[in-house]
Amino acid sequence: xxxxxxxxxxxxIRVVCWASAITLVxxxxxxxxxxxxxxxxxxxxxxxxDQFAMVGLGVFGALGFLLFTxxxxxxxxxxxxxxxxxxxxxxxxxVIRGVRFDRGAPWASLELHDDDLLPMVALQAxxxxxxxxxxxxxxxxxxxxxxxxxxxxxxSR
Length: 157
Known about the structure:
Elements: E1 6-8, H1 12-34, H2 48-66, E2 72-75, E3 79-83, E4 88-92, E5 96-100, E6 107-112, E7 117-124, H3 129-150
Antiparallel strand pairs: 1-2, 2-3, 3-4, 5-6, 6-7
Helix pairs in contact: 1-2
Domain Low molecular weight protein antigen 6 PH: 70-140
Pfam family, one: bPH_6
Protein name: PH domain-containing protein
């Protein structure tokens, strides 16, 4: 059994999310600097706290965008660890039937022996060839595990 480790993170979505997060903070900061004077009808006025609150909203929005940079898949001879936007899973190869990347699907998934499909958001169709290569690498690890089982050498945990 090989000692290779496959680590995959989405590429294109990370660039888009970081650019969007930075843009959001900049826009909210610019809006915050324009919050001065009367609120419109003359009964109130914008204070320094309002400006800080607007920047804070931009930061929270940016953090929301950055959640989409969280997905990752790490696989080795023992199994696969999948971290999606929300939720994480650690699965041994024994429970995995195959690695799927269906035509038209936004991301790859793990097909489990109980007929469940576990999405792997880190392997996105938008990443094109790098996602296909990652799926092939996962399939090679899975095949190596199956070959080891057939040879009577189950992997140890």
